[in-house]
Amino acid sequence: MIIRAGYNIAFHCFQETPIILMLSVHPSRRQHVVIARQEVMRRLYASKRYSLFQIGQVVKRDHTTVAHTVCRKRWHRPQ
Questions:
Q1: pLDDT tens, position by position, 34-64
Q2: Cα–Cα distance measured from residue 54 to residue 3, given in angstroms and rounded to the nearest whole number
Q3: Are 65 and 38 in contact (CB under 8 A)?
Q4: How far is Cα 41 from Cα 52, in angstroms, rounded to an integer?
Q5: What's the pTM value of the predicted model, to 2 decimals?
Q6: Between helices 30-46 and 63-72, what is the axis angle to 10°?
Q7: 61-18-4 Cα angle (round to 5)
Q8: How much is the pLDDT for 35?
Q9: How far apart are CA 16 and CA 14, in angstroms?
């Protein structure tokens, strides 16, 4: 399936359902994916439900990369 820029993909499920998506991104768009991955890391960290190690497993990065991302812009887990 080709997904053009600006489109949203939505799945409607009757209950919370984990979904893994595999995307192939054109090299000219890779920076946008990096920014999105960083936002995912920050939101998962802010949720207080996942450790740095668990977030790293989700985004396929080492936990030290996650720690660097969530702390880089003075992003701290809410109390």
A1: 777 888 888 888 888 889 899 888 888 888 8
A2: 29
A3: no
A4: 9
A5: 0.51
A6: 90
A7: 75
A8: 78
A9: 7
